[in-house]
Specification:
heterodimer; A: 413 residues; alpha/beta; Rossmann fold; 2 domains; 13 helices; 38% helix; globular; B: 331 residues; eight-stranded mixed sheet; two-stranded antiparallel sheet; 12 helices
Chain lengths: 413, 331
């Protein structure tokens, strides 16, 4: 069955898909958690991620998932509950947004250093003060140096599927790292999409049972976990954590390959999607839901004969250094859309810009690079905004990157 | 009708010689001479036995106990963050319950215990412990209270005795007393706020003998979330010779400054009833500790007065600071 856009769809009767359903991003994640047969869920409310937990409590109330559901007294407790449930061998799930994410941050740091493969959803939200419900990526980005797997979903379908993909990668014995799945507040958490919900049987083929092995805290396995090490061992432990991230690269490739085998060719590349880049000279690169207006802008500019394309970066940690270097080296100019801000960083740009520019530095022939700070606090990034960003980036292809390489988009000045 | 205490089915240790010989907290730690908190560790592990999982919040019983590759723990143990005592216990209990219910591990009783110090349990982690005591999981939180942040070089906490010298509260030429907070009443606060929590107790590792081990067993046997607050004289932080740790604990209890009791299903049972047995002057307890050396008579009198109020005026003496019940007329 083909849909009018030429995108392959799967018949609802297909054994790998159970049904089609209109779900928003939060509800989609909750379906992923149900299908992953999670054992322990800890909840604490903060917009916009909260609806994930609303949906899960109803799923449990209706008997569709057998899990402990704990309403914690704070995000710190919530994350610690998830971490310690994972330590006794239970598959555990948590999440948060914005300032709540930061409140529990200490617990997130130790989840990584304890090498516990929990999965957290981040409904991206601007940090206080002043209060703002809208999306901004600084909350999840704060994890980037902490030994986590960190990826962004661009659609609700991807969000659901990355709960399954995330647990599989995180729990792999070669990895054992916690996984943060980020999705844009409102634009993704609360916008509805028609989703294909995987069948349980297909999921069980894809996602093996969680087995922490000889690190499981249980009377039959009386280990001591995380004793004080001081200067004697910290460097080696940090390096072990990094080696796990390096091994994760291979595990990520395997996981997507297996996912594609079971569910159809959904992900040509794990780390990023390229849209109309084959002959492109100028591309924009962004994370999350901004891919929607950006792709539409690409189509419109293509109608005018402009050689533009879009790159939707999915994985931020581990960073796809080699893959991105090989891809972006083909273009004359690259513009990065940062829905975050790295205060005081080189050129005062965004976090993604800093990493991408650093990644491309060793290339003999580097594209001209510009950065866009936009969409902060949930401000819309429109198709017109994207077209403006393409214009600025295309100009950098002709004239080279300007000295002021960072542009704030949609700012009242 | 006089209320009856519930029958708690637990294996009581009647004599010192009946205590289990097997140790589950053994060599490998580097706690100080005369450390009562280390004794709390040894005793709870002995009382709970091998089918136990424990977390220890950051504190001296983390830093001094568990150096990498030399753990003293025979039972499975894991570090948890300073304020995560309660949530770590919930996490373990929830994980074990789900795995047993779903048939992923064998169904059995596994004791879930967290120990947190006074800084971790009584200050930072109070909210998390409150959350744990509201839950329906079988778990025990032990707050080992040596009245200071002991592994960071003795700083005052919310549970440090009024007037004590610590590195945050040194006596000076202008201010003799820098620590002017009255000790936080954590056990009673938790009992009052969590009416479905069936067992809250205070204890000392050594006085009366075996009391703490039996309280540990009662807490684990009664079911649901439970809490024990232990009173641990600390030679380093309180400035006394390590030989006198046990004696200091006894003096603290006999002076009434640290009341010893259980609250079982909402009923208070005094382990040492200072009203019936009498109280020794609090001076006898204070004068043996260097941390109170700067106090003058007026300060000691103030502390004595506060302790007298606790026992003479509180509605539940030594436990709950309500006075005069419903007899005060509304204006």
């Amino acid at each position: 069955m083909e849909d009018p856009l030429g995108v392959a769809t799967v018949a609802t009767a297909s054994p790998v898909w159970e049904r089609e359903e209109l779900l928003n991003g939060c509800q989609a994640v909750a379906q992923g958690v149900r299908l992953a047969d999670v054992d322990v869920i800890a909840a604490y409310p903060i917009r916009p991620y909260t609806e994930v937990m609303d949906a899960l409590s109803k799923i449990i109330a209706d008997g569709q998932l057998d899990a402990e559901y704990i309403i914690a007294d704070s995000e710190h407790s919530q994350f610690e509950i998830v971490k310690h449930a994972s330590s006794v061998g239970a598959r555990a799930f948590g999440g948060s947004s914005g300032t709540g994410w930061m409140f529990g941050f200490e617990a997130l740091v130790v989840a990584a250093t304890d090498r516990l493969p929990t999965l957290f959803i981040v409904g991206n939200r601007a940090l206080d003060d002043p209060g703002a419900f809208g999306v901004e990526h600084n909350d999840a980005m704060a994890l980037r140096d902490m030994g986590w797997l960190l990826c962004w979903a661009a659609t609700a379908q991807e969000a659901l599927e990355h709960v399954l993909i995330g647990y599989r990668i995180a729990e792999d014995k070669r990895v054992l790292m916690p996984m943060a799945l980020a999705m844009d507040g409102a634009f993704l958490t609360h916008s509805q999409h028609m989703l294909k919900v995987p069948a349980k049987e297909a999921v069980s083929r894809f996602l093996p049972a969680y087995d922490l092995g000889d690190r499981r805290l249980h009377p039959d396995n009386p280990v001591s976990i995380a004793p004080q090490v001081n200067e004697d061992w910290v460097m080696e432990l940090r390096r072990q954590n990094w080696e796990a991230a390096r091994r994760a690269k291979g595990v990520i490739a395997e996981a997507y390959e297996e996912f594609n085998t079971i569910f159809g060719e959904r992900y040509p590349s794990p780390y990023f999607d390229e849209f109309m880049t084959d002959d492109a000279e100028t591309v924009l690169l962004g994370l999350g839901a901004v891919c929607m207006p950006a792709r539409t802008a690409v189509r419109r500019l293509r109608e005018q004969g402009k050689k533009v394309g879009y790159i939707n970066l999915r994985w931020f940690r581990p960073f796809p250094t080699q893959e991105l270097r090989a891809s972006l080296g083909r273009f004359k100019s690259v513009g990065v859309i940062d829905r975050n801000f790295a205060h005081g960083s080189p050129d005062c740009g965004g976090i993604v810009f800093q990493d991408v520019r650093s990644c491309l530095y060793p290339l003999a022939k580097r594209p001209a690079m510009v950065d866009f700070i936009g969409g902060l606090g949930g401000r819309d990034l429109s198709i017109a905004d994207c077209i403006r960003m393409y214009d600025i980036t295309a100009k950098a292809a002709r004239d080279g990157a300007p000295e002021e390489c960072v542009t704030w988009i949609g700012l009242r000045e | 009708m006089s209320p009856k205490l519930p029958v708690i089915d637990f294996e009581k240790i009647k004599k010192v010689h009946d205590a289990p010989l097997e140790e589950f907290y053994t060599s490998g730690h580097r706690t100080c001479q005369g450390c009562e908190s280390a004794l709390v560790m040894r005793d709870f592990a002995k009382a709970s036995g091998p089918r136990t999982v424990a977390t220890g919040a950051t504190g001296c019983m983390y830093v001094a106990n568990t150096s990498y590759l030399t753990t003293p723990w025979i039972i499975p143990w894991m570090h948890t963050q300073l304020g995560a005592g309660g949530s770590s216990a919930i996490g373990m209990a929830a994980g074990l319950r789900a795995l047993m219910r779903k048939g992923k591990i064998k169904k059995e009783k596994i004791n879930v215990i967290n120990f947190s110090g006074d800084l971790g349990g009584g200050d930072m982690g109070l909210s998390g412990i409150s959350g744990a005591l509201q839950s329906d999981y079988d778990l025990l939180i032990i707050m080992y209270d040596n009245e200071s942040a002991a592994n960071t070089d003795i700083q005052a906490t919310g549970l440090t005795t009024y007037g004590a010298q610590t590195t945050f509260t040194p006596p000076g030429s202008k201010h003799r007393i820098m620590h002017r907070r009255w000790k936080k009443n954590v056990a009673a606060m938790l009992a009052v706020g969590h009416p479905t929590c069936r067992y809250v107790a205070t204890a000392s590792a050594t006085f009366p003998a075996l009391d703490f081990m039996n309280k540990t067993r009662k807490a684990l046997a009664i079911g649901g979330p439970t809490f024990i607050h232990t009173f641990d004289p600390c030679p380093k932080g309180w400035d006394f010779h390590p030989a006198y740790s046990r004696e200091l604990g006894e003096l603290g209890i006999k002076s009434g400054i640290f009341p010893l009791y259980e609250i079982i299903d909402g009923q208070v049972v005094y382990t040492y009833d200072a009203r019936r047995k009498g109280r020794i002057p609090v001076r006898h307890y204070l004068e043996k500790q260097g941390r109170f050396a700067h106090l003058i008579d007026e300060d000691v009198d103030y502390i004595q007065k506060q302790v007298d109020v606790m026992w003479n005026e509180w509605e539940v003496p030594g436990v709950a600071p309500f006075k005069a019940g419903l007899q005060v007329a509304a204006r």
